[in-house]
Amino acid sequence: MTEREMFGIITRWFREDDWVFDADVDKMLVRTGITGANGQFRMYVSVRNESVVVHTMSPTSIPANLRGAIAEYLARVNYGLTSGNFEMDFDDGEVRYKTSFVARGGHIEAWMVQHLVMLNCMMMDKYYP
After folding, report:
1. Which end of the chain is more exposed for a tag (fewer CB within 10 A), N or C?
2. Which pLDDT score is estimated for 15?
3. Comparing C-alpha atoms, which of 45, 40, 1, 54 is closest to residue 21?
4. pTM
5. Sign of CA dihedral 41, 82, 88, 60
6. Please, what sign has the CA dihedral across residues 118, 120, 121, 125?
7. What is the three-class DSSP state of 61?
C-alpha cells in the first residue's frame, strides 16, 4: 500500500464519520478541529514514511515564565502512558498530544485511524484543564 493509498483510507474514515476537515494530498496532511468538554482544539493527521501521526494542539500557549513548571507536569503525565505523549515547544509554548503508529508494509485500516484520532482527542481534552 502506498502512502497515497494510506492517506485515502484516512480521509475516507473522516468523511464517513462526518468530520469537517481539509485534506492536503501534496503534504499528506488532514487538518480538522475538535470540540471536547474542556476546549476546542486543532488536529493534524499526517502520513510520512509509512507512519500515521496525529497531533492535537492546545488552544493556549504556555507563557515563558511557566514553561518549566508545565514541562514537569507534562513529564509526570507522560510517565506510564502507553499510547502517545504530550510535547511542549519551549520556543513558543505550544503544547500538543501525539499518537502514532508505523504501518509495516504501509497497511492500515479504518479502525486504526479511528483509534488514533479518538485516543488523541480524549487525552488532550482530559488533561487540558
Report:
1. C
2. 97
3. 45
4. 0.92
5. positive
6. positive
7. coil
